[in-house]
Amino acid sequence: MPSDIFVLVPSYNHARFIEECLRSIFAQTLRPRKLLVIDDGSSDDSVAVITSVLRDCPFEAELIARQNRGLCATLNEGFSKSDGKYFAYIGSDDYWMPGFLEARHQLLERRPDAVLGYGHADIIDENGRSVTSSATSWGRWARFPDGSARAMLLEGRSPVSPTVVYRSLALEKVRWNEGARLEDYEMYLSLMDLGEFAFDPRVLAVWRVHAHNTSKDVDMLVEEVIAAQRRNRHILGLSEHEMGRAEARVRFRGARVLLQDGKKAAAASIAAHNTAGAGSFIGLASFWARMCVPMAVIDLVRRSKSILVR
Question: Is the pLDDT of residue 288 over 80?
Fold first, then answer.
């Protein structure tokens, strides 16, 4: 029997990856209510690949192929066509482990006050090789909360999008901002006060990073997060002084990400101008200590953690 989870795949120029994404949905231990794929004006062979693969779908599926309107518009369109108790979407270059939907369904059924369920993800490159995992990578994703998401979001951190399943009743009260470049962060701000974020520490999703990911542009991400916080200042309830401190935290976190990526000069420049964002003397000292550690050592530690978690 199909479940009460409606699944959307927003597709855009991922002909190379879309089959793996779709077949991971077919393989779910809990079948979706329906699968909707919206191709957002791809210029590659995505539509042909999707059409062929969907012939093997063991449950109801539909493809909409249209001109490009952007990811947020695609998400809003997909949700407007959904009719499930829960709504999940996954990018056409990512994929789920077989038990993903079943685990999220169980989590949200146990947590009626939660607006969404989320968890950890493995991160791979465009060739399918392991890069790291949000469960082990220091600094970038650590300390995902279970319950209130306010502190996480104020720091500029947010769930990894392919790990999220939403409660539809909550999404009916908000929409993705079609003018934003960073689609999910502002949605999380809108949902923050509507209920809890239920966290499952297991790794049940895979996020693919490659040259075209917006997540590769740290400067853009930082500025988009700050702009979203300012647009939603009424939700956050921050004074101008508190807003400035929040911006410093977001910028300092951006410096940490740049440092983790080996961009030490850029990281040092941002950190030096946003020391208040470190949160404590220990946090600041830890950052500058890591600046002195060769990247070869950091990469070795990261790879060893990735191996151990498997």
Answer: no
Q: Residues 246, 204: one domain?
A: no
The total of structural domains in the chain comes to 2
Handedness of CA 255, 256, 261, 263 (dihedral sign): positive
Which domain covers residue 148, as residue numbers? 5-216
Looking at the structure, tell me whether residues 54 and 200 fall in a common domain: yes
Residue whose C-alpha is closest to residue 150's, from 279, 221, 229, 236: 236
Q: Tell which residue, 75, 281, 40, has the closest CA to residue 178.
A: 75
CA–CA–CA angle 153, 158, 159 (5° rounding): 145
Element (H, E) at 110: helix 100-110
- Residues 161 and 100: their CA atoms lie apart, in Å, by 13
What's the distance, Cα to Cα, between the start and end of the chain in Å?
A: 32
Nearest residue to 170 via CA among 247, 102, 114, 94? 114
139: domain CATH number is 3.90.550.10
**Exposed, middle or buried by CB within 10 Å (0-12, 13-18, 19+), for 290?**
middle
Task: Determine if the pTM surpasses 0.70.
Answer: yes
For 245-263, write each residue's pLDDT tens digit: 877 777 777 777 777 777 7
Beta partners for residue 197, in sequence order: 116, 147
Do 200 and 250 fall into the same domain?
no
In a domain, 188, yes or no: yes
